[in-house]
Amino acid sequence: MSQKEIFNTDKAPAAIGPYNQAIKADKTLYVSGQVPFNPETMELVTTGVADEAHQVLKNVGAILNHAGYDFKDVCKATIFLSSMDDFATVNEVYAQYFNENQPARECVAVKTLPRNVNVEISVIAWKA
């Protein structure tokens, strides 16, 4: 029988809308898009796109870990950028977290992101 399980942790920012940080369906974990909120203060990191990307991926990692997953379990990542001019910087930071068994992914530029941040990342993970 299929199960759906909700995951939320205080090690990542609380949802700023009507959603959960992650949902697990069977062996697949769907992590909601994360923006660069510091989970301790719920203030945005605004010291540059590299710092934003690090905070976003720390938030993703905290949610993955809370659900019993790791970056190596991620099968798919989606990166949203406010400007493709930030692609190389975000890609460099991203490579530090996904340094083996890199997932499939796409990276798209969008007109604006929540709270006018520069980067948002969501992931899908799977574990046997």
From TrEMBL:
Family in the record: Belongs to the RutC family.
Organism annotation: Sphingobacterium paucimobilis HER1398
Gene Ontology cellular component list: cytosol
Protein name, per record: Endoribonuclease L-PSP
Lineage: Bacteria, Pseudomonadati, Bacteroidota, Sphingobacteriia, Sphingobacteriales
InterPro entries in UniProt: RidA, RutC-like_sf, YjgF/YER057c/UK114
Listed GO MF terms: deaminase activity
SUPFAM superfamilies in the cross-refs: YjgF-like
PANTHER family in the cross-refs: 2-IMINOBUTANOATE/2-IMINOPROPANOATE DEAMINASE RIDA, 2-IMINOBUTANOATE_2-IMINOPROPANOATE DEAMINASE
